[in-house]
Specification:
The structure holds 2 protein chains of 2 kinds. By secondary structure, chain A is mainly alpha-helical. Helices cover about 70% and strands about 5% of the residues of chain A. In chain A, helix 3 runs antiparallel to helix 10, helix 5 packs across helix 10 and helix 7 runs antiparallel to helix 10. Chain A is globular and about 70 Å long. The relative contact order of chain B is 0.17. The longest helix of chain B has 19 residues. Chain B is about 35% helix and about 25% strand. In chain B, helix 3 packs parallel to helix 6. Chain B has 10 helices and 12 strands. The model of chain B has no long low-confidence stretch (mean pLDDT about 90). Classes of the chains: A mainly alpha, B alpha/beta.
Chain lengths: ~350, ~270
Amino acid sequence: MLYKIAGQFKTTYRADQALYPIREDAWLLGVILVLAWIVFPLTASEFAFQTLLIPVLIYSLAALGLNILTGYAGQLSLGTGAFMGVGAYACYKMVTIFPEMNLIAALLLSGVFSAMVGVVFGLPSLRIKGFYLAIATLAAQFFLIWLFEKWAWLYNYNASGAIQVPNIDLFGVAAAGPLASSVTQYYVILAMVTVITMVVINITRGNQGRIWKATRDMDIAAELIGINLMRSKLMAFAVSSYIVGVAGAMFVFLWRGAAEPNLFDIELSFRVLFIAIIGGLGSILGNYLGAILIVALPVVLNIVPEWLGLDIKSATLEHLNIMIVGTLIVGFLILEPHGLAQLWRLAREKLILWPFPHEGRQ
Amino acid sequence: MLDGAETYITEDGRTIGGTVMEMRNITLRFGGVTAISDISFDIREGEIRAIIGPNGAGKSSMLNIISGFYTPQEGEVWYRGSKRPQMKPYEIARQGVARTFQNIALFEGMTVLDNVMTGRLTHMHASILSQAIWRGKAEREEIENREKVEEIIDFLEIQSIRKTPVGRLPYGLKKRVELARALAAEPSLLLLDEPMAGMNVEEKEDMSRFILDVNDEFGTTIALIEHDMGVVMDLSDRVVVMDYGRKIGDGTPDEVRSNQDVIDAYLGVSHD
């Protein structure tokens, strides 16, 4: 009823391969885009921008990058935080060396550096898989954090050892640094996330996506049907680290405003991994659902007791948050390994059939 | 062994051409175990070539050598008139050798359509940037190859399951999807590793029909391993018989059937 596939005939393969073969999906996406581009920025408070909207987008993008590697190509990585750091430090060096550089160009280029670093640390994946590969990427995590601390050139010999985002204008408007307004930053992030998501959707639904999924599902068969596994895996590391790096650069430049090396430590890697797992490995939508859940949960936990008039210490709330996230992860791994995205997929299948269970399915 | 590379026409009117692939004195060892010792045979253009033998005879190892998964310690593989150098399996696949597997090796997380589309990837060359914007070459390739894939889906009669995830399919259909994936590559040599293992009579008949049709309509050269003697004798033009890693017979089904060594290997020898 809500979703109706009856009467939506496809007469060309082009139409059948379209992004949204069902009209209702396109409408739903349209509503979400209107909300994200118009309604939220017009109505959100400063608090909502800084604690909900901006972090959700940035974490979604980081999880999207990780999901390419882990969900699509099947290569487990625990180095996401460090690769985000590479993007952030690369961006910092670029804007301080070339102050005239366009912010968008700097953000996009910083991904190139993290992509190169990602490929180097992806080399072990040619020989090892699964948990052993996770340990190898863990080495990247610790090595890079150490590098961020010890290599003073990276933070311009700053006495504090931290990087401080300077004021940067974008088309005459302050977009990064202390002078930038949240709404400007939100729009820059949203534009980047929208475009990168489109690109990722295209890559994952086409030939490269099939190559990655084949590598993930059965690597021996993949090689015997003509897939160069080395190329497939390194491509996954490159594209994944690129997106993670861009997310890292935006994380610092358009949200935090400053960063110390330990901002990118293993905790950040795990947070992004949890978002990808709870959202759904091997799905695009899942990253957004996962990020909304992980980012919004502590905010909701802070607000709800206030509404109810309960007096709970903030330390307790923090522990409560950790416990709930932990329970969710264990729960999802056991009950629904494909995450929130799979829940939506099932709901959609039900909606297509409802209320006539014999109409057909797609 | 049959004489040289002269073209001849079979009783049912198919043309068998020259040698496509030739195995010369292949020996394969795993540590101290000799899986294959000094085997030579050829596969000719357009024929259905069977490799049979009892369990552990080295048939699958032989197929793995042809598709490049194993490298023999001794011997040479000649493909289309030249000695094949040491190659990675994916490079051999790109030369036009496709295969199916004894234990189904489909990509379980993907739909039937996507699985068959992976068979076309050696024919798709759009750059990742073109794929990223889904315009130009990438989109064109996607549609052209989809048309090819749909022909194969029609041919193997799996239209109704094209958007079903492979993990949900029953065994017999999975075997057919795997054949579809191999056919989608438009191989010049198709290797089938026990295409009828674990099937009932009806499914075996279907699969036999598909194998004959593939050979007949596309002219694909097929090398297959099979245990069902009736099927092998009916389908194949020539048969190689292996036992304990050695070749004990080679020839037409009739010749092989009357070969004393083959009878001994299959029925056992009385020690009197």
